[in-house]
């Protein structure tokens, strides 16, 4: 395998006819990694993934191998592997396309990861709205069972694994791993108090690891290609390929695979540049929960460190591109309405804060804001950031604080009318 | 030259850690939550969701503090209600950290944006944690200029509990209490975000038909009142107290619950001579911070319109009771009692709801003024075997020597026999559940069906036919060897309830079981006064302090203390309740002195009525008109608990003293009435006041337990039902038609549905309703299928439409006739 940055890895089968079929997958190196993996020991696999430096693709970027090593070495309780396929971050569209186009890469990854963590039951929690994807995944799981890649004594290795595909019920919060576990258990999806962490007491209070789809789908390639091959892509601390979901005002929106560290300038080349040539105004590097970037940030390397250094986060690499026709306060209002709608309600800052922020922004966009409101917005954001129960509250304030940081003038402009009116009233008095 | 004082080196004991809070070094036990450690230092961190008896939630985010670990500050403020102390931790609360202070002010402002400004009409105003903490840790004004979220209000979630969703801060104390402590998760969070609200399956329809609680049932809980008390805002209020008064108008008085034998600590709040509400008091050894709804809401009986407030004397000519002065009434009573005493004698039925002091006055009055041992407080099914059991295993036990609430919580195994903890002693139930939940106490119930208490104590049911409990206990060694083994474990406990008196041989079997396995045995009666009445000798075989009436030495001890001539006390055991009633009917007894006894509670209400009619002279000490006052020649009104001082002895034998709540009402406690009556009859009781009575009783030190012979009665035969028959299982529900629950319709509405229960096989063909009858009468109720043994029918003993004793004249273990009850 070569490591040309443009040669696709995760998406290499996507354009083949009926790429989702087991037969296609097997023709294209499918289920070759599983044999190698099952021939080794769980410890070897954990070490391999650690060596490869694979970091979680769900947004936080936690080293996958380290996460796996938190699972207890014994099997006093059942171990569970849970795949977070509740892709809900605004702008993110990589996991569902992956499961549509190449579901077996996820399944093969699940077998390898489950083996590495001594788990015999894996749950794939798929966003409930993605019905087509759930059907395709179920069909793939069925195919894998029939071919002996799942079930008892997989490929004669003595290892057993069952996969259950579970449909979520449509809540953004269930992408948070502990809320996902509660939802999976049939409870109300709200984040759990940590500790205990899932590796100690997760699903059904048993040791559990929750991984993103893309993370697990990367594993078979690492097993086949090795850690060094994987590290040829991307950067030192953020190695490997990544699927960027590019949406908005570009000529050809879609999923683009590129090594971590690729810049927006390079990505824009891949997707045909800005739509109709209208210049770029702002963009998100990893979904709406990551602070906005502007045209100044076209050359920021999109890996975990690069995005963070530039004042944002890599997130899910959901690149939403907005051109100069879009009003920043309006876009920020729409995002905030999303967070208000999706706040789970458990903690005060997120529940009440998003309710308040959305109203202020709606008022401002309607031309009834004041300069004071901008300060209030920032202070309320400060009272939410780092004060909420889970990270979703932090994400909710990102568009507002970064929007005001880069485009304060636009917010001020919305208050102009009001100020004029007020001055007029003063003059009369 | 002055020496700098040396820093005292603080040793950190094993199991403790040293940390710094606001610059002050503190040693805290491992596992302690920061919020509590700070509190011990005197720094109160504001909070809403935190409650020491509930699992941490971290939901409200009000208690944020700054934390430094290993010299590195944590990037975000931490919730001090979820973080435990660690060695070397440096904590800065709002006192020293501007970040923590701003975080707290910010959360407070957010909590208030959607909170309605109805403090002036809110029940909680004046004692509201939100109000108080907003004053202490909030901004002076709000920056919120937009639209508040509104909800229709209030929303009744039961007949007693009303929900105001606008005021709710969603701390989840109520849902966590119901789920964790009570085991009744019938309220839950619905919806999400700013629409999130507390609700039940029924209220869910209002907002969105798709939402339901996990259980799909309305808020049905015997402990629902606790949610009102722990609500940190005015979101939950009771129909009983809503809009009745403001906290700052109330006078609070510590009190003790008068209902069951748990002796829960309470706080009684009154205003202008009227009790407005009762709240749970704190006693970690007894009720922790919880009480049941009966203890909280059932107090209106004392202000009932029909309450007796003046003495009544029956007019010999008209045959009607007429109001009389105390002097006249006492003279008439003394005269009549003396005549009856000098005739065939007078029996005494004090009832099971007296304070220790009042019961003592009855005991002493019987011996001194009436010169008899014919006294029995047991206004319920009773037996001679029970008497032996009480004398040998119960009297004289104390928390130091016997089983306690704490012992239940820590027991590896608790076996409940003929005892329904949730219905008969709710605080015991809560402790059993706590033990089972937190310490994996195994709870086994010998009963008839999987009652809510069985499931909520994660218990195991050993089902037997009613009346077959003794055989079941005897069979443990053979049929349940693992249980037998578990009973031998250190700390194992056996609990037995009042129903055991209806099962011949059960007390004897339990005594043998306890002797054989070493398991400790505790008797938990249903009424508050029972345990005290035993202690003071309100029984035909016992004198105060567990002294046997047949023991001459013991008698002479009592004679000495009471200042009697030697041999003044009768040395033969008296008659028990049934004995006295029979003697009245056969004219072997002339008079009767009755305390708070309802004839319908007695084993044979018909016999009781006959006896009351046959008695030549009846004196009734009562609070409310009853079947006894109907027959009484003299009625002497006595004070309810709120209007007197005294003490109850709870089932542990723990003295639960309380002082007078409402002074100056003129109502007299029984002990005072009996004392004066004694004077009229030339007997000095020295029980003018509860304090005097207690002092007099204290001179009779209790005898050590176990000096009497244990009961040894063979098992009765297990009842068998023929065709068209069933064996009756019956016990009382906590909320039913009890006299002390009158005038409280909101409480009555939270009673469990009144239904009969049978096994699926036995219920076949009976339709939706069943008629249970004896030759005395019949009860028809809706029929529910439960896991009872075949050929058994269960009825609530004293619920609307199901007054088992009064209607059927039968009790637990009786064989009754079963027929289809029609579909109505």
From TrEMBL, chain A:
InterPro entries: ComplexI_51kDa_subunit, NADH-UbQ_OxRdtase_51kDa_CS, NADH-UbQ_OxRdtase_suF, Nuo51_FMN-bd, Nuo51_FMN-bd_sf, Nuop51_4Fe4S-bd, Nuop51_4Fe4S-bd_sf, Soluble_ligand-bd. It comes from the Bacteria. One of its GO terms (molecular function) is FMN binding. It catalyses: a quinone + NADH + 5 H(+)(in) = a quinol + NAD(+) + 4 H(+)(out). NDH-1 shuttles electrons from NADH, via FMN and iron-sulfur (Fe-S) centers, to quinones in the respiratory chain. NCBIfam families: nuoF_fam (TIGR01959), PRK13596.1 (NF010120). PANTHER family: NADH DEHYDROGENASE [UBIQUINONE] FLAVOPROTEIN 1, MITOCHONDRIAL (PTHR11780:SF10), NADH-UBIQUINONE OXIDOREDUCTASE FLAVOPROTEIN 1 NDUFV1 (PTHR11780). This is NADH-quinone oxidoreductase subunit F. It comes from Prauserella muralis. The lineage of its organism: Bacteria, Bacillati, Actinomycetota, Actinomycetes, Pseudonocardiales.
From TrEMBL, chain B:
Its EC number is 7.1.1.-. SUPFAM superfamilies: 2Fe-2S ferredoxin-like (SSF54292), 4Fe-4S ferredoxins (SSF54862), ADC-like (SSF50692), Formate dehydrogenase/DMSO reductase, domains 1-3 (SSF53706). SMART domains: Molybdop_Fe4S4 (SM00926), NADH-G_4Fe-4S_3 (SM00929). Keywords: 2Fe-2S, 4Fe-4S, Iron, Iron-sulfur, Metal-binding, NAD, Quinone, Translocase. It catalyses: a quinone + NADH + 5 H(+)(in) = a quinol + NAD(+) + 4 H(+)(out). Pfam families: Fer2_4, Fer4_NDSU1, Fer4_Nqo3, Molybdopterin, NADH-G_4Fe-4S_3. GO terms for cellular component: membrane. PANTHER family: NADH-QUINONE OXIDOREDUCTASE SUBUNIT G, RESPIRATORY NITRATE REDUCTASE. Belongs to the complex I 75 kDa subunit family. NDH-1 shuttles electrons from NADH, via FMN and iron-sulfur (Fe-S) centers, to quinones in the respiratory chain. Couples the redox reaction to proton translocation (for every two electrons transferred, four hydrogen ions are translocated across the cytoplasmic membrane), and thus conserves the redox energy in a proton gradient. NCBIfam families: NuoG, PRK07860.1. This is NADH-quinone oxidoreductase.
